[in-house]
Amino acid sequence: MLERSSTRGITILAEVIALKTPYKTSQIILVIDAIIMFSSIFVYGDIEKALSQQILSQLGKHGTILQGVNLNQKDSRSFITSPIQC
Q: CA spacing 20 to 30 A to 29: which of 19, 59, 71, 83?
């Protein structure tokens, strides 16, 4: 049961749709997540804010943002890390 569990109800919806269509559950989840992401742009009005809200809602308090620069100290980057439970 654990290998098919999820914290989101989207998985259940995707599995029902997958039973009635030729698409895989993972493909349907990807499409549903994309629809949610793009619709949140209209709610927040800014793609960066919408993306950060989606990441925050998915990772919650378990993500970490790392700031870094490349070796010549000219370009800075931000990285988001998340622990993975095996």
A: 83
Cα dihedral sign for 84, 5, 52, 27?
positive
| pTM exceeds 0.85 | no
Range 4-20 burial, b when 16+ CB lie within 10 A, else e:
eeeeeeebeebeebbee
65 versus 21: the higher-pLDDT residue is 21
In a domain, 41, yes or no: yes
Q: Does residue 56 sit within a domain?
A: yes
State mean pLDDT over 31-43. Answer: 81
Domain that holds residue 50: 2-61
- Beta-bridge partner residues of 77: 68
